[in-house]
Every structure is written in structure tokens, then in C-alpha cells.
Amino acid sequence: MEISLLLSFLGVAVALTLLPGPDLLFVMTQSVIQNKWAGIFTALGLCTGLLIHITAATIGISAILYQSSVVFSIIKYAGAAYLFYLAWQAFKHSSAPVEIEN
Predict the structure, then answer these.
(1) S-S: 24 plus which of 20, 36, 93, 102, CB 3.0-4.6 Å?
(2) Do 26 and 42 meet the contact criterion of CB atoms below 8 Å apart?
(3) Is residue 51's pLDDT more than 80?
């Protein structure tokens, strides 16, 4: 492997590690809008989801889903239905906008 390719890879890896992603922005938003406990529980939920995903990938669930289009479709549509359910709950329980004091 060439040294220039390795340095390019390391530079991109460090930049991606240091830049905030959507998870961090979501945790910060929940902390600012609600309170620190909402941010903590949001971070714990995101970490739990990451652990589940890593575990599934480790035991080979992704290979099974890749081979079986029926199972993949079931999971895909169940996930879409769950997102619609969450959107409906958010719409149904929406309240007045939150005012933040300076």
C-alpha cells in the first residue's frame, strides 16, 4: 500500500470521526429543547440501537437478509409502518411551539 493512499485514508477517517453527525445533532437538539435527561436517554437509545445492529451483523443476519428477499421485504415494510406510526403519534400529540428563554 502506498503511503499517500494510507495518509489520505487516515485524514478522511480522522475528519469523519471529529465532525458531528446526525446522531450528535439529535442528542444536542433534545438536550436543548427538553432537558439534559432527554439528551442522556436519547444517547442511550442510539447506543442501544447501534449495539443491536452490530450484534445482528456479527451473527450474520445481514447475510440472511441479503439472500432472502421475502424476509427483507417484511422487515422493510414493518419498519416503514413503524415510522408512519411514530409520525402519527407525533402529529396527534403535537402541542404549541416551545419557547426558549434567553
Answers:
(1) 20
(2) yes
(3) yes
